Amino acid sequence: MAEENPSGTPSLRDAEYAPPSRGYTRSKRRRNILIGSAVLVVLVGAVVLWRYFGSYESTDDAQVDVHLYPVSARISGYVIKVNVEDNQYVQKGDVLVEIDPKDYEVAVEQAHASLASAEATAQALNITVPITSVSTSSQLKVSTSDVENSNAGITAAEAQLVAAHAQLEQAEANDVKAQADLRRYKALVDKREVAEQVYDQALAAAKASTASVAAAHANESAAQQSVQQARSRLEQAKANRQSAETGPQQVSSSQARARAAIADVQQKRAALEQAQLNLAYTKIVAPVNGEVNKTVVVGLNVQSGQQLLTVVPLGEVWITANFKETQLKHMQVGQKADIHVDSTGRTFKGHVDSVAGATGPLFSLLPPENATGNYVKIVQRIPVKIVLEPGENGDHQLRPGMNVVPDVYVR
């Protein structure tokens, strides 16, 4: 039993063993609840922060990229007009530079004239082909007929020669008889056994027979000439037939010339098209929409292939983000991304388009070679292409080369 103080108040010992008051108990309980709530809030916040910071990957090694379009001259010439200024925005198809077209206009006219001449030649040769075919066919028929007629002429001439020779022999026989009769009548006249009139008749007959022999000789010679002429005509007819028999080759040659003329027409037409293209190339147009950076001025003599301007298509920019290889574990094509621009503080929306097939250093002129004795492992970076959502860069504020910080949401 507790000791009591004579004065009637609890002693110190009694105070130590006295039960705590209700206010103290309530305060301690409140403190424990606050501490537990704080711990719970910290744990929840830690989980939320861990999930938030683990839901995306970020890097400050990222820039705005684009394909630059170099604009070059396709022909050589003298620049007479430049229609744009530096940093001017142009539309696809706008005429940027004009080259003096006079020389190329003359070339087009020359090509037109050459084509017209080639077409006329081809037309004439195409007309000649059927004419040559008909002509050679007719010549072959005529020459064959001439050969047959010449053979018949030779036969007739030879027959006439035989007849003339027979007439000659007959005339010679008659002349022999007439000369013998003349000699007999001469002897009888000298003896006055016959009248002189009979001798005169014999003399006339002898002279007539002699003339007949001469005529027969002449007829035989003429017949021989006729045979030779007929044979010459036969040789000529045969030569004409041989020439006519080359008609198919002549037709083929004519057709080949016609085909060559057609090929020449095609060549001249191609030359005309090239001349027209060269004339069109005197006007250099913008290949895409974008801003222009020029290096050409009026009066410059340019050569074919010489770069004159560069067009920057601001509507086609993308982000090249060089993430560490350890950041690509959960990164996939199509994941959403926020792009924070350093210069303006603006945030653009985009998504992952593709991941490069190799690390950046492998595309360099001298790629690293790790097969050495002094190897130090370095975390590599792999380029990731992030494209903007449609309409995000409508005001063209993103410029190639600008630094950005992309956040790719991987969860």
Could you please describe the fold and organization of this structure?
By secondary structure, the protein is of the alpha+beta class. 51% of the residues lie in helices and 18% in strands. The protein has helices at 12-16, 22-53, 102-190, 196-245, 247-280, and strands at residues 56-58, 62-65, 69-72, 77-82, 89-90, 95-99, 283-285, 290-294, 301-302, 307-312, 318-324, 336-341, 347-355, 381-388, 404-409. A seven-stranded antiparallel sheet has the order 1-15-12-13-14-11-2, with no helix packed on it. A four-stranded antiparallel sheet has the order 3-10-8-5, with no helix packed on it. The chain is rod-shaped. The model is unreliable at 1-7 and 14-18 (pLDDT under 50).
Q: Give the CATH level 1 class of the largest domain.
A: Mainly Alpha
Whole-angstrom Rg = 62 Å
**Counted beta strands:** 15
Mean pLDDT: 82
The helix fraction, in percent, is: 40-55%
Q: From the 3D coordinates, which CATH architecture of the largest domain would you assign?
A: Orthogonal Bundle
- Low-confidence spans: 1-7, 14-18
CATH topology of the largest domain: Helix Hairpins
Total discrete domains: 3
What is the strand arrangement across the widest sheet?
A: 1-15-12-13-14-11-2
Proportion of β residues? 15-25%
Q: Helix and strand succession?
A: HHEEEEEEHHHEEEEEEEEE
Alpha carbon gap, first and last residue: 70 Å
Number of helices: 5
Form type? rod-shaped
Major pleated sheet: 7 strands, antiparallel
**CATH H-level homologous superfamily name of the largest domain:** Helix Hairpins
